[in-house]
Amino acid sequence: MPVMNPLPVISAPSSSRRRLLKFGLVLPGAVLGTGAVWAQPASAAAEEAKAPPLPALGSVLRVPPVTLLDGQSFDASARGRPLLIYWWASICPFCALQSPSMEAFWRGQRHRIDFLGLSIDRNAELASQYLRSRGYTFPSAWTSASWRQRFPKPQGLPITLLLDAGGRVLAAERGQMFPEDIEALADLVA
């Protein structure tokens, strides 16, 4: 009977890597010890450590106008409809699992709920390439450092917020959501 090789031993991460793993900022290759591959530069990790918590349900958020990746302007205050905000990144494995459901939500609800994807990729071109390569059509903007100062991303990724027409937070979720939970967000708006 052949002897099977045991599973590789993965050493416990250092405290600094443990912090990064907690926030999902290390690619799988780095977790498996195949090299120090970082998903974001060190400045992104520092920014994440300072990020605010999720907004409280019932609080009111004012989303600053932003230019979408397709060049159109997006001004939530001028729309007067509920708004789903989805922070994502092309290198986020949980975003990759959630984004197909977000696309389905956008296609099914765009007649009554506005959608704003907010990419935290290193640059707008990475975000645009990612959307194009996967055929995603949900409206997205790349969030520059100056824009994030006016509207900071809460800790974690992906982040999903649902606001009513007046900007009141109806739902705030950190981390990957299941498709049925994303679909249920539509029930929260009248």
How does this model look, in words?
With 190 residues, the chain is of the alpha/beta class. The chain folds into two domains: 13-40, no CATH class; 51-188, Glutaredoxin (3-Layer(aba) Sandwich). It is 32% helix and 16% strand. The chain is built from seven helices and seven strands, in the order H-H-H-E-E-E-H-E-H-E-H-E-E-H. It has a five-stranded mixed beta sheet with strand order 5-4-3-6-7, with helices on one face. Helix 5 links the parallel strand 4 (114-119) and strand 5 (140-142). The protein is globular and about 40 Å long. The relative contact order is 0.18.
Sketch the topology as an H/E string, one letter per element. Answer: HHHEEEHEHEHEEH
User: Quick one: how many beta strands?
Assistant: 7
Widest sheet, order of strands: 5-4-3-6-7
The CATH superfamily of the largest domain bears the name: Glutaredoxin
Structural class: alpha/beta
Strand content: 15-25%
Gyration radius, rounded: 18 Å
CATH architecture name of the largest domain: 3-Layer(aba) Sandwich
Number of helices: 7
Proportion of helical residues: 25-40%
Mean of the pLDDT scores?
83
Poorly predicted ranges: 1-39
